Amino acid sequence: MSYVIQTKGLGKLFKKSAAVDRVDLNVEKGDIYGFIGQNGAGKTTTIRMLLNLTRPSFGTVELFGEKVTDSSIYRHLKKIGTIIETPGFYLNLTGEENLDIHRIMMDIPDKSSVDRAMKLVGLSEQKGKKTRQYSLGMKQRLGLARALLHDPELLILDEPTNGLDPQGIVEIRDMLINISKQGKTILISSHILAEVEKMISRVGILHNGKLLEESSREVFLKKCGHSIQYRVSDPVKAAGLIKELVNQPGITVDGDLVILKITENDNSGKITKLLVENDIDVKESKLVQASLEDYFIKLTGGGIHV
Amino acid sequence: MYKLLNLEFRKLKGTFLLLLVPVTFLIPLILVLIQHASGPKASLPDIITKSSVFIQMISFACVVISGCYIITREYKSNMLPYLAVTPNSMVRVLFCKFILLFMETFVLQLAIFGALFCVNTVLDGFDGDIAVRFLVSGVLSALFLGCLIPAISFIALWRQSFAGSSIIFLVLFMLTFPFTFMSYGYIFPHLVPIILVSKYLGYERYTQMGYGPGILILAGTFAAFSYLSVRCMKKKE
Fold first, then answer.
1. How do the domains of chain B map onto residue ranges?
2. Which of B108, B112, B171, B231 is deepest in the core (most CB within 10 A)?
3. Beta bridge partners of A3
4. Is A71 in a helix, a strand, or coil?
5. In angstroms, how far is the first alpha carbon of chain A from the final one?
């Protein structure tokens, strides 16, 4: 397996408390890896350690199969594009000038790369405007343009959709999916699950500095599971009847809904027949796929922004 | 290195430093001309000698403000991580900032003393001795102020704030300024440029004082704070 990012027992102590606690990340080539966690879970600290901006208290980081050290990091940085926390710019300079400074810092001889990057994020019209006059959303786009400027193999994006409007979020999502199709690897951290759920191929859930789970999206969705919801006239009676029939836990009543977690045995036909035979009106029955967000809340005990 | 230095110059576009430097250049000139026009009859070189402490104070303030701004602007605009993720050593970036500040200090000091010489030539005619004296004064002033740049840089890196670090220096200066007129005033490194340049210009209070201790203190300050600044820049938290 070729890992673009791999950490082994990575951790960071701040005043003896672990902000990141023995995290083993495995990001494969071509992944769009969703690095999910609440605010303060340790996502940014982990990203800073990946980029050698913060020294780990313990554990190791490997990028492109090579252990990161103070000297080896310079070889890798040319292959990495990043957004770290809020994108910073020289506010006295225009968007174009800011990107040009980054172009020179990254040793990119091709001056047209600046125009291309600005066009890619839809900022061509704003390139002559000072970044002081940019909105937060425009700054995020410009940050993304800077990350993409040198056509990196790996993108590490810390909350890249902060401050973007819904249309902007969709555009960025589509852009990242397209970039991933070119064989590039993307690690995207977010506390807004709904934004990343649709694009990621792999997920790592970080909570209180610990990586609770890491798996492919498909495995996660399987774990999330399905349920059937019955909207009925007498939910309490219906729940009792269903319980007798299927003899399984996980039947809940919520208002006029009876929610049944699906197991391998599909009893939906029998259940509907049973309810009708017992004079219970079945107004609606539908299959519901639990989202990553539901799973996250279950796993961490709640408290996530949506 | 040249590439990074060039970028440091480009980053100055549209900043207040483009106003601060000309103002710092004009203030001593205006002050000397006012004194020449309104005071009792005295030659321009004498007025300049008597105003040398003030001229150096203004220059010091300019170096402090420029230095704190240039060193801390990446902190203020959250640009530091973006500098650190480019394949350039942060120590080289810091040295480029030092060089930029040295260049600014040199140009400013040579411009101030050059302009004073021109004014003197217009008023009193050309005098080769005064030309040499002012040229050497400008060079010495630039060298001595340049030795303080690492100290300014260290305080700025430590505080990570333009206002915070500038205030520390200006308060420190105000509290220690009275020592400028004492025989052991050179124990405060930031007062050494004032004392030694004034001495060179013939300020009578410093005629008995040697150059050696002051230069040693400045050299020590330069070396110690260069080391501390590099350490501070390399620090990762």
1. 2-234
2. B112
3. A28
4. coil
5. 34
- Sorted by sequence, the CB contacts under 8 Å of residue B28 that are 6+ apart come out as B51, B54, B55, B58, B112, B116
Residue with the two structure tokens 């000397």: B32
Question: What gap in Å lies between CA B163 and CA B156, rounded to an integer?
Answer: 9
pLDDT of residue A303: 47
CB-nearest partner of A101 from B7, B14, B236: B7
Residue A262: what are its φ and ψ, rounded to 5°?
-80, 130
Cα separation, A106 vs A211, whole angstroms? 33
Which of A15, A85, A93 would best serve as a mutation to test chain B binding (most B beta carbons within 10 A)?
A93
Nearest CA in chain B to A50: B85
Contacts of A48 in chain B (CB under 8 A): 81
**Do the beta carbons of residue B48 and residue B197 sit within 8 Å?**
no
Is residue A266 scored above 70 in pLDDT?
Answer: no
A125-181 confidence digits (pLDDT tens):
888 899 999 988 888 889 999 999 988 999 999 988 877 788 888 888 888 888 888
Residue A53 and residue B236: Cβ atoms within 8 Å?
yes
A55 neighbourhood in chain B, CB within 8 Å: 236-237
Tell me the ipTM for this assembly.
0.86
Chain A residues with CB-CB distance to B11 below 8 A:
90, 92-93, 101
pLDDT tens digits for range A58-110? 999 999 988 988 888 888 888 999 998 788 999 999 999 999 999 999 999 98
Residue window 75-104, chain A: list those with CB within 8 Å of chain B: 75, 77-78, 80, 82, 84-93, 97, 101-102, 104
The one-character DSSP state at A126 is G
Reduce the DSSP state of residue B21 to 3 states and report it.
helix
Residue range(s) in chain A whose domain bears CATH number 3.40.50.300: 3-222
Classify A3-222 by CATH class: alpha beta
Task: Please tell me which of the candidates A53, A105, A107 has its beta carbon nearest to residue B7.
Answer: A105
Which candidate from A53, A101, A106 shows the least CB-CB separation from B81?
A: A53
Q: What is the pLDDT of residues B76-94, one digit of tens each?
A: 888 888 888 888 888 999 9
* 32-51 of A, contacting B, C-beta below 8 A: 48, 51
Q: Tokens 């001056």 — which residue? A: A111
Contact with chain B for residue A217, Cβ under 8 A? no
Question: DSSP string of A155-222?
Answer: EEEESTTTT--HHHHHHHHHHHHHHHHTT-EEEEEES-HHHHHTT-SEEEEEETTEEEEEEEHHHHHH
Count of beta carbons in the 10 Å neighbourhood of residue B4: 21
In terms of CA atoms, which chain A residue is nearest residue B12? A92
Residue A306 has pLDDT above 50, yes or no: no
pLDDT tens digits along B122-176: 888 888 888 999 999 999 999 999 999 999 999 999 998 999 999 998 899 889 9
Topology adopted by domain A226-289? Alpha-Beta Plaits (3.30.70)
In this structure, are residues A5 and A47 in contact, taking their beta carbons and an 8 Å threshold? no
